[in-house]
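tmp note - N-acetyltransferase GCN5
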Amino acid sequence: MPLELVRPTTAVHASFLAAMAEFRDEGRGTPDDRSQIGRDLRDPGIGELADPGVFAAYVARVNADALPESPRPRGFVPSTTFWLVDGGEYLGRIQVRHRLTEWLRDVGGHIGYDVRESARRRGHASLMLRQVLPHARRLGVDPALVTCDEDNIGSRKVIESVGGVLEDVRDGKRRYWLPTA
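out:
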């Protein structure tokens, strides 16, 4: 089965847990980690996600977050998440935020992505970013703001390879605009 972007699914439970362990082992999930993976490692937490029922509820919540009426923390916007899978293997995630808040405009952008450590440097992030652009366009996002840490050379190359145009650097974040059409 080829690589594909899918909506979050319980079918990749075991490999999702393994990926989250990889993220935790590289230092993600600390109190100052404001990424989606950081939040997931803290709440519900990787230990709780091992329970199939908790994981199913988590998957349902992530999918429901695309709906404007879904409850979410203050300051969060609707977002659509896709997971990159290879057969039954979870490789990474990409999230399209439907609109920008002031914080997202400065730091987070419309699109965020992560690839598990064991699957990096194989073009997966570029593939996810390219494949999610039409979805962003259908949401009315054009162009999309994509950011990365100034010292994240890999992410910089991904964004630029897909057509990102650097606007500026703010507080250590490179801010790129990427056409979605």
